[in-house]
Structures are given as structure tokens and as C-alpha cells.
Amino acid sequence: MNEITAYFSTIPSSNRSLILVSGIAVFWLIENAFPLFNLKYKKWQHASINIFLTLTTIVVNFTLAFILLQSADWAFDNQFGILQWLPQMSLWLYALVGLLLLDLIGAYLVHLVEHKIKLLWRFHLIHHTDVWVDTTSANRHHPGESLIRFAFTTLGVLIVGSPMWLVFLYQTLSVIATQFNHANIDLPKKWDTVLSYFIVSPNMHKVHHHYKLPYTDSNYGNIFSIWDRMFGTFKTLPKEDIIYGVDTHMKVEEHNHLQNLLKIPFQKHRSPENL
């Protein structure tokens, strides 16, 4: 664990970028070999949109990274935050507790709030318009949503009192987890079910991408599945019943044109029955 701590204390930005790119590449190959759904789409055209939005997410996070660094340093120096107030524990347990809490605030909570507050939903909606969910969909976020998520991550760092090495570890695991649970991978049902008791599995997250309520408002987790189970937002749906997208934006010109996706938060929205 000391080696992990040391690595993530000084991890270069280039290594973090390499992890993101490598994750997409690995899951891209796996989903091509063992697809969950036989998606009828132009994969490279679809990927170009999602990768562009992924790049905007990277720009936002790297540009504002100094805020995370200052927040983590301030919390640690002032002994502020949950981790600082807990009794001394092993480094492994310290890391696990920290990751669970960062995942709760930086992933589960912000995701839940984005679904419940209409203004925030306008930005998160871009992620749900994807009707061909694959590993490139993981960071299909409007730049405005990237700012919202960054704000919650910063809040999480302060509340948790997380040192920066733990923040970098959390962000790395978060990237890999979201690429994994968005990937169009056909895992054996038993494997997926067992995984879903500990982490967010592909089938578990795909339910969240079903185009209608109540499934759209379920399974908000990213790394750990405990929060959905604990707070009653866990749902299941047979994979053959899943239809991707969101019922307000099912037309190709609405969900598969980058220019329109960037404009969605500022457009006049219809008032569907389920949202």
C-alpha cells in the first residue's frame, strides 16, 4: 500500500491521461469481441462525439486541478474532514473508507442531484441522450456538467479530508469503473450479479440508461454499488428490455449531432410524462 500511496502522490498528468486512453482502448476491444448488444451504428462516428466531450472533461479537470490540490492540502494541514477525525487505522482501511466517501459525494450524490434539479438535469441530459451506450459513452458530459461534477468532487475532498494521493487514486479508479460499466460487454449473468453486490457492474448501470422512468432514476453509483442498495435506488431490469436513450431526444438529429448536444441545456425543453 505504501508503494501505491507513493505512486499516486506524484503521478504525472501524462500517466493519468494514459490510463484514460488505455481504458477506452482495452474495453473497446473487449466489447467488440463479446458485445452485450449488437448495436446498429457507425461506431467511429459515435465515438468521435463522445471522445470530443471526454476531451472537454479532461480540459476542465486539468485546468481546475489546482483547486483540488489546495483543498486537499488545506484539509490535511488543518486536520479537517472525516478521515482526519477518525481513530488511527491501517492504511488499507484508511484508503477504503476514503474511496467509499469520495464515491458517495463525488459520484452518487452529484448524479442523484443532477436527476432531481431541473437546471442540472439540462446539462446531464446530454449523457442520457446516447442511444448506443458503449465504453466511449463513459465521459459523454457537457462541459457544464463537468464543472458541476468538479464542484462536488471538491466538496467531497473537503468533507472527507482526503489527501491528494487518495484523490488521484479515486479519480483513476472512477475513470476505469465508468469505462467498464458503460462498456457494451456481455458478462455471464452470474458474474455480473455477483459483481453488482460490490461494484457497479455493466448490467447494473445499463438499467440507468433505459429511456423511461423509474429506471432512469436508479443505479446512480459509479464505483461502489453499496450506495444504491443502502439508499433504495437500486433496480434491475432484464437486459432484453433495456432501450437506451431518453424519450425526449430519440431522433438522430437530437442525440447524434455534436452542435445540438452542446445547445441542449439552453434549448426550450418539452415536458414529457416521465421526466
Q: Would you kindly provide a written description of the structure presented here, covering whatever features stand out?
A:
Helix 2 (13-33) runs parallel beside helix 9 (164-182), helix 6 (91-116) packs across helix 8 and helix 6 packs across helix 9 (164-182). 39% of the residues are buried. The mean pLDDT is 93. This protein is 62% helix and 0% strand. The chain is mainly alpha-helical and 275 residues long. The chain is built from 14 helices and no strands.
Number of strands: 0
> What is the rounded distance between the termini?
45 Å
SSE succession: HHHHHHHHHHHHHH
Query: Mean pLDDT, rounded to whole units?
Result: 93
Which radius of gyration do the C-alpha atoms yield? 18 Å
Give the % helix: 55-70%
Low-confidence stretches: none
Sheet-strand content, in percent, reads under 5%
Described by the principal axes of the CA atoms, the overall outline is globular
Count of helix runs: 14
Main pleated sheet: none
SS-based structural class? mainly alpha
Question: How would you summarize what this structure contains?
Answer:
By secondary structure, the chain is mainly α. Helices cover 62% and strands 0% of the residues. Helix 6 (91-116) crosses helix 7 and helix 6 packs across helix 8.
